[in-house]
Design a protein that fits this description.
This protein has helices spanning 3-7, 10-23, 37-53, 82-100, 116-128, 142-145, 148-159, 162-171, and strands at residues 62-68, 74-79, 179-181. Helix 2 packs across helix 4 (82-100). It contains eight helices and three strands; from the N terminus they run αααββαααααβ.
Length: 182
């Protein structure tokens, strides 16, 4: 079975939509609310699936929203549409297990069943056992600076599904996925 078929399974899309609804968040450029996602998916599932299978699905531009940082400065938060967030979640649910085993046991950020509280707990455990140094690395702007071509090549080694790679390329901005500040 092609990877895209696993991503587009009804159960996977339904679970992905539930996760997006549970996470709440603002609407994207189309201003669709997460509350409207279930109805949208019910009415448009087959069209959406067909567009993705045929590699004709085009993500909407990302809405840019300025949010304050703790130091009085602002940063731009990119907000995809809820449909794109749901599709991204569906893809992540399928490809994450193919890569998860490769991550370090010392890594806690953006990992399933791992969180900041666990990282702090592990740090305290190390301190209490006599370790004197703990390293925290925050790769500021990493995804703005990472070589997307190299990233896509690494992903292709395990994915090898043209339709899935097309989705990923389009979310990364190939051919274009501009941020629109509103």
């Amino acid at each position: 079975m092609e990877l895209i078929e696993e991503i587009l399974r009804a159960a996977n899309l339904t679970q992905a939509s539930k996760e997006v609804i549970h996470n709440k968040g603002a609407g994207g450029i189309d201003r669709m609310s997460v509350k409207d996602l279930e109805g949208y998916l019910h009415d448009n599932r087959e069209t959406l699936i067909h567009q993705i299978r045929e590699q004709k699905y085009i993500p909407q531009p990302i809405r840019g929203k300025e949010i304050p940082k703790g130091d009085g400065k602002f940063r731009t938060l990119g907000i995809p549409t809820v449909v794109d967030r749901m599709l991204q979640q569906a893809v992540m649910r399928v490809i994450m297990p193919r890569y998860e085993y490769m991550f370090s046991n010392y890594s806690y950020r953006f990992r399933p069943k791992r969180n900041t509280h666990q990282a702090v707990g592990k740090s305290l455990e190390y301190i209490n056992s006599g370790h004197q140094h703990i390293v925290e690395i925050d790769l500021k702007g990493f995804f703005d600076e990472v070589d997307h071509v190299l990233l896509l090549q690494i992903l292709y080694r395990k994915i090898k599904c043209k339709a899935t790679m097309t989705l990923l390329r389009r979310w990364l901005g190939y051919p274009s996925n501009k941020t629109v500040n509103l």
